[in-house]
Protein: Phytase A
Organism: Botryobasidium botryosum
Amino acid sequence: MAAVSILLYSILIAHAVAVVPQINFRLDTAPTLLPPSIARNLGPYAPYFNATTYVPPPSSCVVTQVNILERHGARYPTQGTSDDAQATISKIKKIGVKVDSPLAFIASYEWDLGVEDLLNFGAQESYDAGAIAYQRYPSLFSTFSGQIPFVRSTSLPRCVNSATNWTKGFEEASGRSFTFPPLLQIPKKDYNNTLDNENCLACTDDIAIANRDEFANHNFVNLASRLSAFLDPSYLMGGTRMLEVTDVINLMEMCAFDTVAKEKKSPFCDIFEDGDWPMLEYYLDLNKFYGSGYGNPLGPIQGVGYINELLARLTGNPVKDDTNTNRTLTSDPKTFPFDRPMYANFSHDNQITAIVSAMGLFHDADLPTRTIDRERTWVSSAIIPFAGRMVVERLTCDAGGEANVRVLVNDAVQSLDFCEGVTEDGLCTLAAFVESQSFATSGGDGNWDACFATPAKSHQT
Ligand SMILES: *[C@@H]1O[C@H](CO)[C@@H](O)[C@H](O)[C@H]1NC(C)=O
Ligand SMILES: *[C@@H]1O[C@H](CO)[C@@H](O)[C@H](O)[C@H]1NC(C)=O
Ligand SMILES: *[C@@H]1O[C@H](CO)[C@@H](O)[C@H](O)[C@H]1NC(C)=O
Ligand SMILES: *[C@@H]1O[C@H](CO)[C@@H](O)[C@H](O)[C@H]1NC(C)=O
Ligand SMILES: *[C@@H]1O[C@H](CO)[C@@H](O)[C@H](O)[C@H]1NC(C)=O
């Protein structure tokens, strides 16, 4: 009996003093999966990468609150993407490939990818993110009681699993056992969910599809001919068309999906040359920009609810929002607490692009659809790669001074040009930041009503 208690006691002690836990980070190996010339041109299908090295705030500042908005980690393709890719692969098999061509492997390629679910690689991205969240801000958790992060997610399994893997990474990095309550899941299909963009019924994919297709039809034709030359030429005799622009895009996207699923560089990547990849990035950038970003009149409005919740958190005032905030949730301290030093929310690329646009980040007035705009700030792989994240830090600089904010996207400090008095370190006073968010505080200039003007199909996330 005594021996058992001593054993138990030593286990507890061992646990309490384990301050340097083993964390098996995988992010460090992600860059070796694909060269940057490919990985950084995969738009929202890019494996997570930090855009720069994290720069801590100036030493006179103390971080007092952290708000994390994170995309789920790498997943299998959606049903639509999967169907399209399989159609292209079947077509190529049917036509036949030239041996020794970069398409030769397709003759024996067996489809074995799942649909939509979080991958092990994606779980690891989320786990790493949780570990980093602790390691970066340990002082927020120096006293134990109640100071655990508040974690919320949409209810789709890939988001839930991302959130729970994040929590695990956070806990293991801390070397302590925080007791997280059950994850607060917000049903995807419920209206007024600030983490999901299916609320704005009048917003369709039409604008995004028209613009990205215009780009593809002007820019991918040569590539389609180049790849067609790798197919059996005798098939052409029948007068059947060879590869289309859409086939090229499907093959390029397969490079992304097959690589993260198998955790090694896919042969689909070797079909292409370095100079081809920026075209894919731009095509995918247009899709997001005109989907729920600045290019869609009903894009940024969908991010207003989250921004208003964020302002509530930062200022400690109740949420004031007439768009997609669910008031049942935000008026209850159990589902909308104000006493935590860290809040983490798991969401989708289309919703996060709406939110960064509502805030004013990565602003481009519009993007041309015939040629690549190489001066653009809107690069989706740098905004919403898998496990991409926006972190809003609240800080006090110079003891007793005013509250400030700093915004980081994938570790890159945002210049917040829209925030009056912002410093070179990206610090802006909270008061000026709130002032700068008039699009959100005004309810999105009345755009929310337009979401309900004509009932129409909503987005895929
Ligand atoms: C990402 O962060 C790591 C660790 O701080 C750093 O070594 C690496 O250079 C960063 N990546 C880029 C592209 O700056
Ligand atoms: C992490 O994600 C994986 C893959 O989705 C899932 O199987 C696993 O249950 C998750 N682990 C935790 C601790 O949530
Ligand atoms: C608000 O959230 C609650 C709790 O999840 C849910 O029961 C309710 O249906 C939501 N309301 C709306 C309008 O979505
Ligand atoms: C994340 O979601 C929760 C639940 O609604 C909300 O309380 C919190 O404010 C959100 N985080 C931020 C930064 O808005
Ligand atoms: C959800 O949004 C609609 C449309 O603006 C609004 O009428 C409704 O009151 C909101 N519901 C909740 C629970 O916030």
